[in-house]
Specification:
InterPro entries: cNMP-bd_dom, cNMP-bd_dom_sf, RmlC-like_jellyroll. Pfam families: cNMP_binding (PF00027). Residues 12-81 form the Cyclic nucleotide-binding domain. This protein is of the alpha+beta class and 157 residues long. The chain has one domain (6-145): Jelly Rolls (Sandwich). The protein has helices at residues 11-14, 18-25, 108-117, 119-148, and strands at 28-33, 38-40, 48-54, 57-61, 69-74, 79-80, 94-97, 101-107. The longest helix has 30 residues, at 119-148.
Length: 157
């Protein structure tokens, strides 16, 4: 199924002009992941990304000598995956479905090629993904401090 659905309202796509959103969504198809499904592994090849329609996904990070640590929870309209945009195209986190998940899936190579051919779209996608990366970095840092620092993330005084 190509998109004209709920994902068009996502924060990731909101920063992209409407006409460009439609072009981008033509490259998508709907997928479903069962609860408990490992969507991707940290260090694996990042060759696609998703905009969630429904369900919940945990992002996690490998911590040597410890269990994998959940660092963020994603829900409807969130972008799942940003490593596809930056060489060497390797996942920086892992992801698993906590509930059944419906999402629009995009082929990363096709989207990168579209962005090269349409610099306006390319800039909009890059800025939208950069905003997600910045948010994820802050969230992961805070979560890891909560889990592993002697006094948690604490308040700055």
């Amino acid at each position: 199924m190509t998109g004209q659905g709920p994902s068009l309202g996502s924060a990731f796509l909101r920063g992209i002009p409407a006409a460009k959103q439609r072009i981008l969504m033509e490259l998508s198809h709907e997928v479903t992941f069962a609860a408990g499904h490992r969507i991707f592994h940290e260090g694996g090849r990042a060759d696609r990304f998703w905009v969630l329609r429904s369900g919940r996904v945990a992002l996690d990070v490998h911590v040597p000598g410890r269990q994998t640590a959940d660092v963020e929870l994603l829900e409807s309209e969130d972008l799942l995956g940003w490593s596809w945009l930056f060489p060497p195209y390797v996942w920086h986190l892992g992801a698993r479905a906590l509930t059944e998940v419906r999402a629009d899936e995009f082929d990363a190579e096709a989207v990168r090629a579209l962005c090269v051919g349409d610099p306006e779209l390319g800039q909009a996608v890059a800025l939208a993904v950069a905003a997600v990366v910045g948010h994820r970095l802050v969230t992961a840092r805070t979560r890891l401090l909560d889990l592993f620092a002697p006094y948690g993330s604490g308040e700055r005084g």
